[in-house]
Amino acid sequence: MRAAVVTAFGGPEAVEIVDVAVPEPGAGQVRIKVAAGALNPVDAAVRAGFFGGAGKTLGLGWDVAGTVDAVGVAAAWQVGDEVVALVPGVAEPLGAHAEYVVVDAGAVAKAPETVDAVHAGTLPLNALTAAQALDLLDLAPGASLLVTGAAGAVGGFAVALAAHRGITVTGLARAGDEELVRSLGAARFTAEGAEGVAPGAVDAVLDAAVLGERALEWVRDGGAYVGVMPGRQPGSVWGVRTGAVEVRADGARLGELVRLVEEGVLRLRVAETYALEDAGKAHARMAEGGVRGRLVLVP
Questions:
Q1: Number of structural domains in the chain
Q2: Which of 42, 82, 113, 277 is the most buried (most CB within 10 A)?
Q3: Is there a contact between 29 and 104 (Cβ–Cβ < 8 Å)?
Q4: CATH for 206
Q5: Are both 22 and 114 inside the same structural domain?
Q6: Is there a single domain that holds both residue 143 and residue 81?
Q7: Which residues of the chain form beta strands (DSSP E)?
Q8: DSSP-assigned beta bridge partners for residue 108
């Protein structure tokens, strides 16, 4: 089968399409015939060596939508099930950007019935990251939350999920994204570079744009800050609790997010699709910036 990997760190040109053996599921695992999977900034980070692994073959891709085609012992799925899953962490040597991928059965959820596989393949990583970040913030209905990068993948899901929980959301994004951010559920909007948020104005910040200390200034004394890059969150000041989400695979939680897609709470946004063999071109497009929605690879 074909798979997108890196064997040496670098730019988009470092992405290789290689032929490898089809993986076999072990006990408690399933093999998924991949129909689609989103390209995410974390893939560029793997490609560039941010997570290490020099001298190894590293698979790319964390998101997968497809069909179960083989199951291991005690895996509670059946061949033919249409599913989504998160392939967590830096994969050696295979990730989700391949024709087949093996994952733990507990990472899998039934695919949403209201969207196609291309859209479904944009859900797992970013929606789980947003949901688990909100869990860390632990905000009650009526609390105020500022989401940075509110037009992006994680930020957009965070806006929608928080609003669905009854939290008053302010979205921070580019000025041209106001209509989008408000449509996702933000009660208020502030434009990057012209922030209309007073210091200490909100109960919490979910910092999807990785603004760090600048975003911390908007949190009230005793509030909370959660970032999306473990180890990059600012230190605590003014009694503000700080942390960062480290996304983990969770099939049950992913199933809850699928239901929110089917109910129309979460919107899945696709910008462009690329064939698997054009993975390097997709990496180059992502590096250009300005993408609204996900770039999706289709084997």
A1: 2
A2: 42
A3: yes
A4: 3.40.50.720
A5: yes
A6: no
A7: 2-6, 16-19, 29-39, 58-59, 63-71, 82-86, 100-104, 108-110, 144-148, 168-173, 188-191, 202-207, 219-227, 241-244, 270-275, 294-298
A8: 85
Q: What are the pLDDT digits (tens) for 59-73?
A: 999 999 999 999 999
For tokens 């994952």, the residue is 103
User: Residue 5: CA atoms inside 13 Å, Cβ hemisphere, count?
Assistant: 21
Q: How far is CA 260 from CA 116, 164, 219, 280, in A?
A: 15, 10, 29, 32
Residue from 194, 191, 232, 187 nearest 213 by CA: 232
Q: Are residues 100 and 66 in the same domain?
A: yes
Q: Which of 269, 178, 160 is nearest to 169 (CA)?
A: 160
Asked if residue 40 lies in contact with residue 294, where contact means CB atoms within 8 angstroms, the answer is: yes
Burial of 32 (0-12, 13-18, 19+ CB in 10 A): buried
Burial of 195 (0-12, 13-18, 19+ CB in 10 A): middle
The confidence band for 22, taking pLDDT boundaries of 50, 70 and 90, is: very high
Of 212, 229, 244, which marks where a domain is finished? Answer: 244
In a domain, 226, yes or no: yes
**Residue 91: its pLDDT value, please?**
65
Q: Is residue 56 included in any domain, yes or no?
A: yes
Structural domain that includes position 172: 126-244
- 138 and 98 fall within a common domain: no
Whether residue 61 sits in one domain with residue 85 = yes
Question: What average pLDDT does the segment 135-146 reach?
Answer: 98
* Domain identity same for 65 and 92: yes
